[in-house]
Amino acid sequence: MVDFKRKNNRLKGFSYSNIYSYYITICTKNNKCLLGRIHTESLDPMTKNTKVIPTTIIEKPSFSIVSKSVILSKIGEKVEETLQFYMLNEKNKYTIDHYIIMPNHVHLIITLYDKMPESDMESGTLSATNGVIAESDVESGTLSATIKVQTIIQKIKSYVSKSLGYSIWQKSFYDHIIRNEKEYYNCATYIVNNPLNWDKDELFSSE
Fold first, then answer.
1. Fewer CB under 10 Å: which end of the chain, C or N?
2. Residue 81: which of 25, 154, 164 has the closest Cα?
3. Nearest in space to 92 (alpha carbons), one of 129, 117, 127
4. pLDDT tens per residue, range 52-62
């Protein structure tokens, strides 16, 4: 889904303070699995631990349901603590809509806002739903947020590094500008399913 080859990942001529949603990937240095591990569990579909309700099954099924989740390391817990901190303390500037902490990288969807009314902050409703902006606004470039994506990512990475006393991150990060609701849905779905598809991930490591 994302090209992880090292390259100039800034879009020439684009203002990264524009009000969009952004799909972001932050990688650990040398892609080392410092943030956690994937836990795999096979669930019997006939047990009460699953939501599969058989109707006319005569014999016990020969298949099982595989569940995968991320077990965070101490470093991974610090990354999650950092994300939660910024989600709470900078929600008037942007929102971290979705995130997943994988063994050697983090995916986020960040939506920038120019101004969020107090009523929206309290109710949790946002006027720019899922960061989908009208094409006319995108083309004219009239919308601009008060904070840039680079600034957000740098603050997150720096907060983690200062807490640990050393840096665990690659210098750059990878981004994709989400331009419509379908792209937003695809990115959010990818994040949710990332643990399940870990062994197919471009960043997969068996370390």
1. C
2. 164
3. 117
4. 333 333 344 44
